[in-house]
Every structure is written in structure tokens, then in C-alpha cells.
């Protein structure tokens, strides 16, 4: 499993969205508008699938 990440617009650093996906299915999944509280800047970031990318999490959920 990999972590679904977005980029914080304030810091430019990756932020974990709290979602996990297998690499293959993520390419075709539709994710509608979601929000996440950023642990880096404290703001709420709204995102969609096109804003997200996967990051290997070492197999932990």
C-alpha cells in the first residue's frame, strides 16, 4: 500500500491525506473533492485526485 499525498501550497512539502491505495488502482480511481488539515501549516487544504500522488509507506496502514 502507498500513502496518498498532496503538496502543501504554503510550504511546498508533501502532506499525507490519510488515504492509502495500491499503486495500480490509484491510476483509475475517481476521488471527488476532499479536505485535509495540513500538519505543516495548520490550514485546511481542499484537493482532488489530479492534485494527489502516491508515496510508498513501508507497508503500514
3D architecture notes:
With 61 residues, the chain is mainly beta. It has one domain. The chain is built from 1 helix and 5 strands. Strands 2-1-5 form a 3-stranded antiparallel β-sheet. Strand 1 and strand 2 form a beta hairpin. The longest helix has 4 residues, at 23-26. The protein is globular and about 30 Å long. The model has no long low-confidence stretch (mean pLDDT 90).
Explain briefly what this protein structure is:
This protein has 61 residues and is mainly beta.
- Mean pLDDT across the residues is 90
How many helices? The count is 1
Based on CA atoms alone, the radius of gyration comes out at 11 Å
Biggest sheet strand line-up: 2-1-5
The best one-word shape is: globular
Q: Characterize the biggest β-sheet.
A: 3 strands, antiparallel
Number of domains: 1
Strand content: 35-45%
Q: What ranges have pLDDT less than 50 throughout 5 or more consecutive residues? A: none
Helix content: under 10%
SSE order: EEHEEE
Q: Count the strands?
A: 5
Helix and strand composition category: mainly beta
CA distance, first residue to last residue? 7 Å
Key phrases:
mainly beta
Write the layout of secondary structure elements.
Blueprint: E1 2-7, E2 14-21, H1 23-26, E3 34-37, E4 44-47, E5 53-56
Antiparallel strand pairs: 1-2, 1-5, 3-4
Amino acid at each position: 500500500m502507498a500513502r496518498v499525498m498532496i503538496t502543501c501550497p504554503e510550504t511546498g512539502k508533501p502532506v499525507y491525506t490519510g488515504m492509502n491505495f495500491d499503486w495500480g488502482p490509484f491510476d483509475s480511481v475517481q476521488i471527488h473533492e476532499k479536505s485535509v488539515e495540513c500538519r505543516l501549516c495548520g490550514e485546511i487544504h481542499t484537493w482532488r485526485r489530479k492534485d494527489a500522488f502516491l508515496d510508498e509507506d513501508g507497508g503500514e496502514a
